[in-house]
Design goal:
- By secondary structure, this protein is of the alpha+beta class.
- It folds into five domains: 168 residues, Beta-Lactamase; 108 residues, Beta-Lactamase (2-Layer Sandwich); 118 residues, PAS domain (Beta-Lactamase, 2-Layer Sandwich), CATH 3.30.450; 82 residues; 142 residues, Heat Shock Protein 90 (2-Layer Sandwich), CATH 3.30.565.
- The chain is built from 21 helices and 21 strands.
- Helix 2 runs antiparallel to helix 5 and helix 18 packs antiparallel against helix 20.
Length: 660
């Protein structure tokens, strides 16, 4: 039977632990932990220190007790490292005077009190902090009391971790609520019965309702009657689980009966059983855009009416407008007259009321560096009665240069005689900028991907390789102690084979992520090493032939692109081709590096693959890598034969000079 004193202590521990489980705030919880510590050990006061998530240092967050420590004691406690030692050693430590001890029966060097600290760890072993009980005079808590203190500390750690998680969750919910309430676009939560459950201020503004009036209204009640059937079908499909989301442009009838145009995107949030819980709808006011579109349509109608008054210009401009719907121009070869559309004037940045269009004035607007090229091309086109097409720059009077693409076709009269050109001009400046920005983003993304591959490769090599070596050594040690027992040896053989296979798989994965040979030895060595490892892994013969490089290195970007293209191509061969032999050819021809990969497996229809969005898995990525360096990627294949992939990467001047 348990002694009365121990039964009392156990009951006290249970009471204190139960109090921690109550619904109390985080600060009150920490005070309760301090109070429980004092009650268990009869200490003068107790402290709770928690680890700062950013620095890892201990921070005092709670202090409680009937006796307050002196300033000198607090100073010495902050200087001492016993609480950090408790965390590091994962055990309770005791400080008597100025000494760190592990037992309480150690002789007291100075009669200056006692401090007992025990670490707090979360469920995953993450350090949370330290609870300390302080005795300002000599004391010797019983071993059983210290054991109860350790049990109490473990329970307190679990409760503190749970309270911290709850605080984090509450902060996250508050942020989400802030996004919902303060968002720049309208948002609403809709019940499966199509009623508004919640709405933010922006939606109230769009629809002209107060929040208390809007909540509870049906989603269809405010929708313009002609627009509801289209959305109702989408909404029913979402609720039925056929789709998860939909988008639609629709009109609403505001509370003041005005019509507002919006773009609506809704997503159905589902319960674990798949049934609809609620819909989250985002509503954007596009009334101004719709009005602008209406004005634009009216302006186009007015422009068409005006063009009817200019019969001669209509004859020249009709074909160009049909071709491009942009700026248009016409050249009369018999008279030398040049005609521009309004859009052409705008692209060139000149006012048609003050600018006289002639061949000479038009040429003056072409960038000086492009004039000779454009003039020569136009002269040759006229001489050959051929189509004209060029990309050049125009220099506006303001000094701004704009990139344009111009194309034209020759015009002949009823007798077959050449009479001039009718053409179009497109401002491609923004398109070029967008393409360049996209290429820069893709380059940065691929560079970041390569850095991450390199980091993961190193960590896998250092950590997993070390564990495999330990496993192999452990198997050898067990084998040495098995005394030749047959069944043990068979099990060890199986374990050893598994360890070797894991080592082989790990090596291949490390190579696939980022081969060290690519950084240290160059592209040729990396291609050969990867092909050898791939061939061994998939039992497909792979041969690598390299010519024209003469041991020189390409730029890191070129080497990485060619290596990844080869790697993705071999992956496709392993997955889809069912080939027995693969040939990898890397060669330099003049100022271009060529990578050719051929297999004798099952091919595919290149035209059909292109129409369906890019072909086998990875083809889009390979083309993207080649395009980023100004190169190309071509595929030659058929459904009944092998496949040949040809990547061409232009070399920079430094790469070319280094190879000569």
């Amino acid at each position: 039977m348990m002694p009365d004193t121990e039964l009392t202590a156990v009951t006290q521990l249970q009471d204190l632990s139960t109090r921690l489980a109550g619904e109390i705030g985080f600060e009150s919880l920490l005070d309760e932990v301090s109070a429980g510590t004092i009650a268990l050990l009869k200490a003068d006061f107790a402290t709770v220190e928690l680890c700062d998530p950013a620095s890892g240092r201990l921070t005092l967050v709670a202090q409680r007790g009937p006796v307050q420590p002196s300033t000198e004691y607090v100073r010495r406690m902050h200087v001492a490292s016993d609480r950090e030692d408790s965390l590091r050693r994962h055990m309770r430590v005791v400080v008597k005077g100025e000494w760190l001890v592990d037992r309480l029966d150690t002789a007291d060097p100075v009669d200056s009190g006692l401090r007992v600290s025990t670490p707090l760890f979360g469920p995953g072993g993450c350090p949370l902090g330290v609870i300390s009980a302080h005795f300002l005079k000599s004391a010797a808590p019983a071993a059983r009391a210290l054991q109860f203190f350790d049990l109490y500390s473990r329970h307190a750690a679990s409760v503190i971790e749970r309270a911290r998680s709850w605080q984090t969750l509450r902060a996250s919910e508050e942020r989400l609520r802030c996004y919902f309430d303060c968002g720049p676009i309208g948002m609403a939560v809709i019940t499966p019965t199509k009623q508004i459950l919640e709405a933010n201020d922006e939606l109230c503004r769009i629809l002209g309702y107060e929040l208390h009036d809007l909540v509870g209204l049906g989603w269809a009640d405010m929708t313009e009657a002609d627009d509801w059937p289209a959305e109702a079908g989408q909404l029913e499909r979402a609720l039925a689980g056929e789709i998860d989301r939909y988008s639609i442009d629709k009109r609403w009838v505001r509370k003041d009966r005005r019509i507002v145009h919006t773009s609506v995107a809704a997503r159905c949030m589902r319960r674990p059983d798949g049934s609809a819980d609620y819909l989250l709808a985002v509503v954007q006011d596009i009334t101004e855009r719709k009005l602008a579109e209406d004005r634009l349509r009216q302006e186009k109608r007015a422009a068409r009416d005006a063009r009817d008054e200019f019969a001669r210009r209509e004859a020249y401009l009709a074909e160009a407008e049909r071709m491009s719907h942009t700026g248009s121009w016409a050249l009369n070869a018999l008279t030398g007259e040049l005609f521009w559309s309004e859009e052409h004037f705008r692209i060139c940045g000149v006012d048609p009321a003050h600018f006289t269009v002639t061949l000479e004035s038009g040429v003056e607007l072409i960038h000086p560096d492009d004039r000779a090229f454009v003039g020569d091309l136009l002269a040759r086109s006229i001489a050959g009665r051929a189509d004209f097409e060029c990309d050049c720059r125009v220099l506006r009077p303001s000094g701004e240069a704009r990139f344009v693409h111009s194309r034209a076709r020759p015009v002949f009269n009823d007798f077959g005689s050449f009479v001039g050109y009718v053409g179009s001009i497109i401002d491609t400046t923004e398109m070029r900028r967008a393409d360049e920005e996209r290429l820069q983003l893709v380059r940065r993304a691929m560079a970041a991907q390569e850095d991450e591959r390199r980091r993961i490769s190193r960590e896998m090599h250092d950590q997993c390789g070390e564990r495999l070596a330990e496993l192999t050594a452990c198997i050898g040690s067990i084998r040495a102690q098995s005394d030749g027992r047959l069944h043990v040896c068979r099990e060890l053989d199986a374990l050893e084979a598994t360890a070797k296979q894991l080592d082989s798989d790990l090596t291949f994965l490390i190579w696939a992520l980022r081969p060290t040979a690519l950084d240290d030895l160059g592209l040729v060595a990396a291609l050969r090493a990867y092909s050898h490892a791939w061939s061994k892994r998939f039992a497909v013969t792979a041969q690598v032939h390299c010519t024209g490089l003469d041991g020189s290195r390409l730029s890191p970007e070129s080497e990485t692109a060619l290596y990844r293209i080869m790697q993705e191509a071999l992956t496709n061969v392993a997955k889809h081709a069912h080939a027995s032999q693969v040939s990898v050819i890397l060669e330099r021809r003049s100022d271009t590096a060529h990578l050719i990969i051929e297999d004798d497996g099952v091919g595919f229809d290149v035209l059909l693959a292109g129409a369906s969005g890019g072909g086998p898995c990875g083809l889009v990525g390979m083309r993207e890598r080649a395009t980023l360096l100004g190169g190309t990627l071509d595929i030659e294949s058929s459904a009944t034969g092998g496949t040949t992939l040809i990547a061409r990467i232009p070399l920079s001047r430094n790469e070319t000079s280094g190879l000569q």
